[in-house]
Q: What sequence folds into this?
């Protein structure tokens, strides 16, 4: 089956008791057993819930994965992956990461004796310099947040396999519509379902997909043991949202391209980050591993102070100033004070997260209105 058909149908069976076409919200914490231990696969809802199981089947299909597990947030999913490790283990990851990933690595798991190397992954060969006997995991985000670096997933996978390391890819920015890391050799895919998959800014959720039975069993054990499980209502909302993922992504990509082209030669823009430009440093890799380039764009305002950047970011009428991304509505974000506030100044500036950087999550509105809004906001001084 092709992507759009799977988005609508995978995991969604008509309800056997009524024929309801939409998967019911099984709002229950437990399941009745006829005699002890005779449950029908469902014993307690932290472990399993039928609405969640339907969603997991659906999301697995979108990544062509054998298994999927849903979590109460993207961070809950990330937390579970790192809990596969032991004290003394080492992780190699990128130097441009979602702020919350950087925070959980450095402020939570570093305290448990796990060591993280934050390196430039735009050349995957850099990984080799950091591999030693303790290395267990490579954690890749691509495109990166917020500077849209592109990491070569297949090259990372080759290095991971050669050294018997696990490769996990945070595929949030691309969504399964644009990129399928398992097909490129990754062992685990992580999604903040909150973003494109949910798509309507009304749910916080995370997911992990894998083809590896052992990883699945271990991660399911961690999910059930640690309890970052999502509720059935949220699972329902995501199943509903996913039904239009392919349509939304098409428009995100179309609008993203139009806006990137509009901004590229705008006199107020000093720098623009969007992997669809031929002069993007890893455009060729983006073209190879992604089907299109998405609706995430970052811009640096020419010579703007922090105050001026604030004034611009508050003068939009259609874009809303907010954290998060991937919803139907266009958002603007100031990484330094919002999504990336937890990263020390020297570290973020080294990768280009400067005071006058703004990140756009281009929504699915009419692009003419979005461009008009950008035009007027960029006149603000
Ligand atoms: C939002 C986000 C996360 C964290 O997901 P939550 O659902 O907010 O917990 C992780 N990685 C990326 C790239 C994100 O954008």
A:
């Amino acid at each position: 089956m092709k992507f759009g058909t799977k988005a609508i149908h995978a995991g969604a069976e008509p309800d056997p008791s009524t024929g309801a076409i939409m998967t019911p919200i099984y709002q229950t914490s437990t399941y009745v057993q006829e005699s002890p231990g005779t449950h029908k696969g469902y014993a307690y809802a932290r472990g399993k819930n039928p609405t969640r199981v339907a969603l997991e089947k659906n999301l697995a299909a979108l990544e062509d994965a054998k298994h999927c597990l849903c979590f109460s947030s993207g961070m809950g999913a990330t937390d579970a992956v790192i809990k596969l490790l032991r004290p003394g283990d080492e992780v190699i990851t990128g130097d441009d990461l979602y702020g919350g990933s950087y925070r959980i690595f450095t402020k939570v798991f570093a305290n448990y004796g796990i060591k993280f190397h934050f390196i430039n992954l735009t050349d995957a060969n850099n990984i080799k310099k950091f591999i030693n006997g303790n290395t267990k995991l490579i954690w890749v985000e691509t495109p990166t947040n917020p500077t849209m670096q592109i990491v070569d997933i297949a090259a990372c996978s080759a290095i991971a396999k050669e050294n018997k390391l696990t490769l996990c890819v945070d595929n949030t920015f691309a969504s399964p519509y644009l990129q399928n890391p398992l097909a490129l050799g990754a062992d685990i895919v992580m999604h903040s379902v909150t973003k494109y998959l949910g798509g309507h800014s009304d749910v916080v959720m995370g997911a992990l997909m894998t083809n590896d039975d052992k990883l699945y069993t271990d991660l399911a054990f961690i999910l059930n043991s640690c309890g970052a499980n999502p509720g059935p209502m949220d699972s329902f909302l995501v199943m509903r949202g996913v039904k239009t993922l392919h349509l939304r992504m098409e428009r995100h990509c179309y609008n993203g391209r139009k806006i990137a082209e509009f901004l590229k030669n705008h006199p107020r823009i000093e720098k623009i980050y969007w992997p669809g430009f031929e002069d993007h440093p890893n455009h060729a890799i983006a073209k190879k591993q992604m089907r299109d380039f998405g609706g995430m764009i970052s811009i640096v305002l020419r010579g703007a102070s922090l105050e001026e950047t604030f004034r611009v970011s508050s003068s939009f009428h259609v874009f809303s100033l907010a954290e998060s991304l991937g919803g139907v509505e266009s958002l603007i974000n100031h990484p330094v004070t919002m999504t990336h506030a937890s990263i020390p100044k020297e570290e973020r500036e080294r990768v280009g997260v400067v005071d006058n950087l703004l990140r756009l999550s281009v929504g699915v509105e009419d692009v003419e209105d979005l461009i008009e809004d950008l035009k007027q906001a960029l006149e603000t001084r």
Notes: The chain has two domains: 3-242, 245-378. DSSP finds 13 helices and twelve strands in the chain. The domain at 3-242 is CATH 3.40.640.10 (Aspartate Aminotransferase; domain 2).
